[in-house]
Amino acid sequence: MRVLHEIVSEAVTGFRNLLFPGVCLSCGQPSVEGLELLCPFCKENSFDEANPFRTNTCPGVILPAILEYQFAMWRYDKGGSLQRLLHNIKYNGLGRLGFELGCLLGERLRNCPAVSGYLNSGMSMLLVPVPLHPRRKRMRGFNQAELIAMGISSVTGIPVADDTAVSRSRYTRTQTGFSLLARNSNMAGAFQLEDEQALAGKHLMLVDDVFTTGATTYALATCLREAAPEGMGVVTIAYAP
Ligand SMILES: [Zn+2]
Description:
41% of the residues lie in helices and 15% in strands. By secondary structure, the chain is of the alpha/beta class. The protein folds into 2 domains: 1-45, no CATH class; 47-239, Rossmann fold, CATH 3.40.50.2020. The strands form 2 sheets. It has a 4-stranded parallel sheet, with helices on both faces. Strands 3-4 form a two-stranded antiparallel ribbon.
């Protein structure tokens, strides 16, 4: 007679295979084990590193003084496989992929000297996902930046800020196609500090899916500065120069 947990485990595996048929979402090879959505090969080799020299910014990025580092894992490939993956997280409900990429990003952060110093410093740190407007979050069902932050958290142990700490107070238009100037003015005042106490005196690691011109991050950092954090930096899955 089979024990109950074996029967349950078989049922779970069957259900999982139905949802995730064990095919890598990037290369389509049937080599993915368990709940992984990307195969180990793609995680290591399919995308270009955005910060190959592991310095405190990706090449060409000039940060405002309020941010101490900007780290991105991969270089954005317009029209390519990475763009498709990131699109799937946002619009096709593949939230799990956001978590999985967040885990990978967390590991890369530990291997980047410009960031790992903060992780090893013992200072009080907090991951702050770039908030979505509540209406957009309702439509999408989740905030992809939160899922990425949860992945980073599971690897680094840094807690994720409660989504009540800072909010998106304006429903901003999508920024695709905007000039840098238009992006900055579109984002100015888009965020509202809700809980200063939760953020004060901590090192805040801002989390988003893609870093493009930095307009969104800079607007959020400007807002968070009012809570007097110990310092701030930004980490993303991709950098789109
Ligand atoms: Zn693959």
